[in-house]
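Support case: guanosine-5'-triphosphate complex. Customer-provided input:
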Amino acid sequence: MTNKITNTKLEAPGLDAFQCGALITNKHRNIIYANAYFSNELNWQVEKLIGKSSDDLFTFSSKIFIESYLMPLLLHEKKCDEIQLALLDGKNNRISIIVNAKMDDQGHIYWSLFNATKRDKLYEELIETRNKLEAQAKILQSMSVTDELTGLMNRREINLRAPELLNQAKRYVHTVALLMIDIDHFKEVNDSYGHLEGDRVLKELGLRLKTFGRQTDLIARFGGEEFIMLLPDTDASDARLFAERLHKLVSEIHVNCTPVTVSIGITMSDGSHSLEDLTKQADTALYKAKSNGRNRTEFDQTSIYTG
Ligand SMILES: Nc1nc2c(ncn2[C@@H]2O[C@H](COP(=O)(O)OP(=O)(O)OP(=O)(O)O)[C@@H](O)[C@H]2O)c(=O)[nH]1
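Agent response - structure generated as follows:
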């Protein structure tokens, strides 16, 4: 390339080997040089580009961006790095490009243009992959805290969430009721009607517990056919009433026209017990309910109030 740049067509054969577009415009922004990349990759005939305004190479929105951002930057800083614009190729296809530009004292602008289509595609793929991973992480997160069959929280999750609820009871001086609910003779359901029928009963019970409980209650499938409910701000007489309603609600579920029944063990706490202690106490009460004939509720003897 000659050192002295005039406003006429330039020759610079060395630049034709570059894998990017090289463009020089004069102070009127008319093209005085375009390398072979424009004909090889962008479907322009270089001859036809000479004399054209560089504006003609860009989409409408990119032109606005050039006027409002690129030109003021070039006038003040004399250079502009890595801006993304949309160029129209010789067949009027929109091509995403990264532009670096430099302006000399005579107002010539030296543009280098890198095709960003592949990079855009890579970014799109990366974004898509990230979205997929986020969605998978959400599913995994929900699976790790949820019992798959009933949709209730699992044992691990209630173990994590119970301490906060018990602490609140202590702080705000109210009582908490823990109900251990166990389906009666559930083995017979499985043995007589099959595992799928057993699963249906578990699902129906889970659904009823969920809709019956308040938003603040913690309800979990504790294992097998055993569920627990932790009811904040509930005294023993409320808990008894709650259990009575629960027995009625459960009897709406039928297996071969026979209502399903549950036994319930209840223990009360002022928030000073651990979940582990409370479940042991409720388990003792549940055992009593089973021994006393099932389909009934018993309170644990150590409860602060036994109704
Ligand atoms: N269908 C089904 N059955 C389950 C699941 N988890 C545990 N079970 C069954 O639940 C039954 C529990 O039986 P048991 O512990 O003897 O209790 P039960 O028959 O309900 O007797 P009581 O509790 O004494 O009234 C077993 O047959 C387990 O196989 C499950 O996810 N789906």
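The first strand starts at residue 21 and ends at 25.

Case will auto-close in a few days if no follow-up is received.
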